Amino acid sequence: MKSILNQTWPELSPAQARRLIERSQRIPLYAHAYAFHLNFRSNRIAIEDLLGFARDHRLRGIKIHLDDGEAQSLRHCDDARLQVLHSLAQQYGLEIHLEVSATDRAELETAVRVGRALAATSIRCYPRYAGRVSEIIDWTIHDLRRLKELDPHGQFRFTLEQHEDLRGEELVRIVEAVGNPRLGLLFDFANMLNARERPLDALAAMGPWISDVHIKDAQLVTERNGWGHRACRSGQGELPMALLLMELLLLGDEQPQVVAYGLEEEVDYYAPPLRFADEPADPFIPWRDVSETEMPEPGELEHRLAQERQDARGQLHHVQGLMARLRRYAEGFLAEPRTESP
């Protein structure tokens, strides 16, 4: 498995080294609700708590799904509660980024309605269709061409995430066909594995279009001539996290191209393979439900909920440590000789 996820550290020019040092010191990190997935499903935390976590740890904002929190989710909030959340985010100086798990008109309309009430700045989506890959691409292009109609004043950045079925070049094909300057790509550290694509290959294909990121770590699982992944604590998996962060931070010459990095710790989340080595030229993707982590047994719940909160803090500390390692690596190219990677 290590050969699948192998990594080669690049040589940096002095300009790239200075860029990496500067950007790693001000990386725009966002709290992600999925890091508290089990706590949200158990009604142990609310959206206010996620905002508080982001404020307490000096993050830029939050990324949250319309359905995080079950009956207490944004989808079910009335206007008064949405106004309270909007006011709290403003008080804390935080951005809100919304996420939905579809590209159809109804879901995007709901996201836009809630987003306007919250003064959100970004909406993430991904196709969740059953069909041939070519059909999914065509349906998604059709869906996303409605964005100008749904958001005529350009309040939102829209991002299309690679979410376990489509590969990087297929997503780029969608974005280019839609032709909306407000639409970009969201790069997830692990989701390309399920489409049998390597992380660095996906990043190379998607690179010019990436504006947002989900940071996480995972173990690669080989099944039935395909790859699945099981998410784990950051630093305990097989993903080349530091190298991916380096490449993402370097995107954009004058200004950083990536504007938001979500801390999406997903310990024990499992996703099966959807693409295979022996698949036909236009493979069929089966229907799948929205992403969820399996709930622990009742006797283990309290421990798991506490551990999840600790893991979220641990991921932040791990990413901060990676930023320090990247700075040390970059500094080596400003003071010869360069001898090793971090």
From TrEMBL:
It comes from the Bacteria. Residues 58-244 form the Xylose isomerase-like TIM barrel domain. SUPFAM superfamilies: Xylose isomerase-like. It comes from Marinobacterium nitratireducens. This is Xylose isomerase-like TIM barrel domain-containing protein. PANTHER family: BLR5974 PROTEIN, HYDROXYPYRUVATE ISOMERASE. It holds the Pfam family AP_endonuc_2.
